[in-house]
Amino acid sequence: MFGPRKPLDSVTSHPKNARLAKTLSWPHLVALGVGAIVGTGIYTLVGVGAERAGPAVILAFVICGLVCGCAALAYAELATMIPAAGSAYTFSYAALGEGIAWIVGWSLILEYSLACSTVAVGWSGYLVGWIESAGVHLPHALLVGPHGGGIVNLPAVAVALAVMGMLIAGTRESATLNIILVVIKLVALGVFVAFAAPNFHTANLHPFMPYGFGSDGKHGVMAAAAIVFFAFYGFDAVATSAEETKNPARDLKIGIIGSMVLCTIIYMAVAIAAVGALPFTALANSPEPLALVLRNLGQPLAAHLIALAAIIALPSVILVMMYGQSRVFFVMARDGLLPRRLAKVSQRTGAPTLITVLTGVTIALVAGIFRLDEIAELANAGTLLAFISVGACLMVLRRTAPDAKRLFRAPAPYVVGMLTILGCLYLMVSLPPMTLVRFAGWNVIGLVIYFAYSRRHSDVAARAASVAAL
Question: What InterPro entries does the database record attribute to this sequence (predicted)?
């Protein structure tokens, strides 16, 4: 019904010139996960979430953490069972069929591309705030896109292209740099909590839920959860690195689950400290909420250093997300669903250079033109669909391949799978209606490409046809 499925024994078998080099170990994977998860979501979307839910943005973080925790368990089982690049796209191809895999892969391309662009715009906000706090004022036309009365967000374009250059240099080199950036980022958040926590006032938590629990698309706890959900994903990029992992059996489960648990703890500490130290109305929609809190607490130096740390470290999120997007793109091209010439890897670095360039340029263009909240919401829709498919894959493969080797087994797989699906569906319907319309439009374009090109050039479909002809 959904097209041919890729046999499990063929998922990790590829020609030498289309095979990614194994260069990563578990510290790289934990850093990739933390590098992707801890970023714009906690540094900038706390303000957006506070505007939508008030102090109950804390509850929004809890809900997202629970949903993503279930998804992380499913990812950990599937990634160690199918240690190949492509994450949810590859899992869907093996469990559900080519048609579903295409939709998931097409949505992942949207997720990673827009996630990179969102972080680039958030990074630009911190950079501009940091420069202007020093008394230097830059031309407005080069700091925002047309939506804000400018021409292009030049800092966002510049950081996207710079990260693209890092990835072209090689996967291991990029991952090692990412570890350094992650340490800087975590130290900065620790400093923020240390300064903000002593100024916690319970009065700032009242009313705790001023807009209610549900969502009208604009306000409520679930409306906030639908946007701050962006702050949690990133561990799926760890699954995307499976093919480049030296010891998938050990490293993948540590990378996926370890990064998810660590980041949930960090997020709760930062969100409680921020909302408790400053009324949510002051935080609402600030492009640099953590620095704003510290300035209001009379800590201008700490605020300056937090903003500087964000400027230095936020590119790690762009790096990981751009890495994930290029790998999904690469695997789809290797499978014949996109032009195969895109699946060539560099002989020097073992990385897909052409796809990385295309990815980087596209991300830079989007970051230069669009608004942060619109980009983040649309990226969330793509991620939620991918998580739904992973929950389904977990349950389907437990039925269709019960004896397959699983190096990590998710507890209560049918409960975990259903909670992932239902939680993500609830978050998806909580997104603004216009976001869902844009997401549907993206997938209509994807289906046109699939039926016009991809289905006829698919390696799996060609093999299935040749077997049927015998």
Answer: AA/rel_permease1
DSSP 8-state secondary structure symbol assigned to residue 217: S
Q: What CATH number is given to the structural domain containing 177?
A: 1.20.1740.10
pTM of the model as a whole? 0.78
Confidence of residue 398 (pLDDT cuts 50, 70, 90): very high
Instruction: Report if residue 89 sits inside a domain.
Output: yes
Structural domains of the chain, count: 1
Query: How many of the other CB atoms lie within 10 Å of CB of 400?
Result: 13
Q: DSSP for 122-144?
A: HHHHHHHHHHHHTT----GGGTS
Does position 1 have pLDDT exceeding 60, yes or no?
A: no
pLDDT (tens digit per residue) in 86-116: 788 999 999 999 999 999 999 988 878 887 8
Task: Please give the Cα distance from 367 to 49 (Å, whole number).
Answer: 21
The CA R_g of the chain, rounded to the nearest whole Å, is: 21
Name residue, tokens 């997720």. 111
Q: Please name which of 83, 164, 126, 60 lies closest in space to residue 290, comparing C-alpha atoms.
A: 126
CA atoms within 13 A on the CB side of 19: 12
Helices and strands, counts by H and E, the chain = 21, 0
What backbone phi and psi angles, to 5 degrees, belong to 370?
A: -100, 165
Domain containing 230 equals 23-459
Mean pLDDT for 305-315 is 78
Could you tell me which residues come within 8 angstroms of residue 134 by beta carbon, excluding any fewer than 6 positions away?
Answer: none
In a domain, 254, yes or no: yes
Interior angle at CA 234, CA 232 and CA 240, nearest 5: 155
Q: Is 4 helix (H, G, I), strand (E, B) or coil?
A: coil
Phi, psi of 232 (to 5 degrees): -100, -30
On whether residue 276 sits in a domain, the answer given is yes
